Structure to design on (342 residues):
């Protein structure tokens, strides 16, 4: 079965019992590990249980295909289901998985962890097409999704958080779910489970004091440098973000989002709104420290140029998905070209 984005989170919390094999794939390794853990714990109480939880590498199954059936159809000594995790999954497993799905275990769950699989991937297509399997994508989350995660974790810890604090933190930890969760947990620990802090509101200064290093080089620094025609700062920010491990696709989509917001602001102004009204209506709101810079960029960037940039970025995203593409070089060239536009 193929899951839509609306179905993913409910499925992760409570996997469809008809899915005896679940393929979890995508570029966000942190999000993938988190979802595998959540689904695995619906089958076993301890993912490290030596009797009921087994981890196999794809290379092991390629050398010994019968191992999958042996493990997946073994009965639990203590009753209940067993979890079989397959790491580094890929298309070499397709034939084996198809064969297993002809007669899978009704109790045990097989979860395959894979990297990014394109639409033509035979393993992905097999799991999407099978009624007793599921394909679950883990794409890099955008700022809105990370903002929801921040609010949920902070609320569960008994606190509230200001909107500008949420926006600042989300902008600086988007890209990997494990990194994002780690920074949020660090923030909650920083505030502390003290009785006097119960129910208190986490403010921007709290976030910056605790997680300042998460935004040492922020995506905002890059986007405002690119749109502000500061080529030197843009390239420096890009190289530092890459050095910190921020995926190119996150950088690219952040740029796309920024220029779309500039484009949307222009469209609102064309309907009679002032620049202040149009900017104020943006959701999520512009971080207050960047409001003046954003308004200045609205004045600088006219619709024809914005259309040109959005087209260039869209084309670049398509290029980065091609096998063997020099993604980092292509992104650097685009940043250099756009920031040099006058």
């Amino acid at each position: 079965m193929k899951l839509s984005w609306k179905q993913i989170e409910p499925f992760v919390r409570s996997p469809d019992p008809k899915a005896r094999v679940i393929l979890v794939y995508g570029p966000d390794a942190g999000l993938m590990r988190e979802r595998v853990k959540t689904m695995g714990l619906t089958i076993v109480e301890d993912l490290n249980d030596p009797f009921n939880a087994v981890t196999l590498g794809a290379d092991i199954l390629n050398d010994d295909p019968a191992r999958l059936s042996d493990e997946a159809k073994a009965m639990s000594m203590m009753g209940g289901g067993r979890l079989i995790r397959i790491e580094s999954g890929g298309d070499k497993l397709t034939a084996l998985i198809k064969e297993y799905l002809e007669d899978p275990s009704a109790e045990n769950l097989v979860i395959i962890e894979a990297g990014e699989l394109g639409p033509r991937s035979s393993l992905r297509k097999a799991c999407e097409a099978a009624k007793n399997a599921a394909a679950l994508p883990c794409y890099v989350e955008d700022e809105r999704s990370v903002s929801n995660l921040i609010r949920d974790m902070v609320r569960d810890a008994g606190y509230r958080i200001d909107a500008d604090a949420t926006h600042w933190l989300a902008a600086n930890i988007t890209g990997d779910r494990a990194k994002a969760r780690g920074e949020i947990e660090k923030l909650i620990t920083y505030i502390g489970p003290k009785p006097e802090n119960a129910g208190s509101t986490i403010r921007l200064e709290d976030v910056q004091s605790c997680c300042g290093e998460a935004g040492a080089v922020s995506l905002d620094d890059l986007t405002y440098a690119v749109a502000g025609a500061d080529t030197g700062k843009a390239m420096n920010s890009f190289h530092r973000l890459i050095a910190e491990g921020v995926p190119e696709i996150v950088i690219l989509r952040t740029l796309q989002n920024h220029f779309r917001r500039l484009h949307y602001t222009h469209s609102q102004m064309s309907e009679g709104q002032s620049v202040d009204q149009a900017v104020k209506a943006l959701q999520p709101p512009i971080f207050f420290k960047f409001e003046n810079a954003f308004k200045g960029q609205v004045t600088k960037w006219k619709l024809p140029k914005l259309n040109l940039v959005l087209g260039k970025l869209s084309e670049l995203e398509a290029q980065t998905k091609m096998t063997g593409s020099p993604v980092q070089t292509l992104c650097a060239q685009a940043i250099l070209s756009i920031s040099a536009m006058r």
